Amino acid sequence: MEITRRRLMGAAMAGAIGATAGIWSPGVSAQALADKVVKIVVPLGPGGTADILARLVAADLAAALDNTVIVENKPGGGGVIGALSVARSAPDGLTLCLANGSSHANAPAIQGQPKYDPVEDFTPLGLIAEVKLVLVASPTMQADNFDAFVKAANGRTAPLTYGSPGVGSTGHLMGAQLARLSGVPMTHVPYKSTAEVSRAVMAGEIDFMFDNLPVALPQIRAGRLSLLGVTGEQRDGEFPDTPTLTELGLAPINTPSWFGLVGPAGLPPAVTQELNAALLAALSKPALADKIASIGGAMQPLSAEAFGRYVERAYSSARKAAQENQIVID
Fold first, then answer.
1. SS3 for 20?
2. In Å, how far are 52, 57, 183, 190, 254 from 291, measured between CA atoms?
3. Strand 133-137 relative to strand 208-212: parallel, antiparallel, unpaired?
4. CA 255 → CA 30, 130, 246, distances in Å?
5. What's the CA gap between 197 and 24, in Å, rounded?
6. How far is it, in rounded angstroms, from Cα 187 to Cα 109?
7. Whose CA is closest to 198, among 186, 212, 185?
8. CA distance 268 to 89
């Protein structure tokens, strides 16, 4: 597993970092969208899990649609900027969004006046995968487990600091919930991207973060990040000594990161059906399933309707968490 993950991460990151778009060419036939360019907007920065997954899926999606699929990063606002651009696009199936927990649950949940409704302003197309999240700390904290982390925090006069790729991102909301559940004072420090947050944690500029396992994995292995906890019902097979967040008494935040595909509201039923069928065809490819699994993802293909209910539950849960933690921005 270690070799497979490393090889995939190297290949995926090489194609993602420093790029704003990737292009795949068609293979087999489709219908309404044939011979047209479909764009997947990733509302988060290059090199992150959302970006990696979008680029992995795009190749097989292009083959299923018989056209070209491009991937464009449009980060900012915890996913709001990119998602809003898709919500405002023409409902023709040519502009899609790589929806995720930040863009379609947490960010709009904390806004006093959300710029869009993640349920009403989009057409769900399908869930791609769920990915484990990890709680990682800076080595400067000298804490190799959660108890040592809390002890170090309680021995300081200043609050702990944690970073995220923007106000309203998954990392922001999870950090706020961790502060409430643990009783440890913590201060949120927003950055523009997950990569920037990770560098700040490794350098000791901030104390910890929540990150997707695929992105944090190389730094954990290299000892540049201290792994304290992981989401999931069971411990991760590669880190059997690391407890789940539920084992640490943090059950309310023991939820995975998730990624799916949506279009703007009002997509014609035929286009919705075609895109969902193409996505399911892509996700049925054993090679793609292996690649997603090798970066810590659990592929979860769903119908368009089932994914719509999934997003609705995630948004409802995020709004509850925002209220409980009193996180509201104008």
1. coil
2. 10, 10, 39, 31, 24
3. antiparallel
4. 36, 9, 10
5. 30
6. 20
7. 212
8. 14
Tokens linked to 193: 């991207």
pTM of the model: 0.81
Q: Residue 237 burial (CB < 10 Å; 0-12/13-18/19+)?
A: exposed
Distance CA 202, CA 219 (A): 8
Q: pLDDT tens digits, residue range 142-184?
A: 999 999 999 999 989 899 999 998 888 889 989 999 999 999 9
Please state, as a whole number, how many other Cβ atoms lie within 10 Å of the Cβ of residue 82. Answer: 24
What is the helix (H) or strand (E) element at residue 281, kind and residue range? helix 269-283
Tokens of 169: 């991102």
The span from the CA of 95 to the CA of 265, in Å, is 11
Other beta carbons within 10 Å of 74 = 18
Q: Alpha-carbon distance 114 to 110, whole Å? A: 8
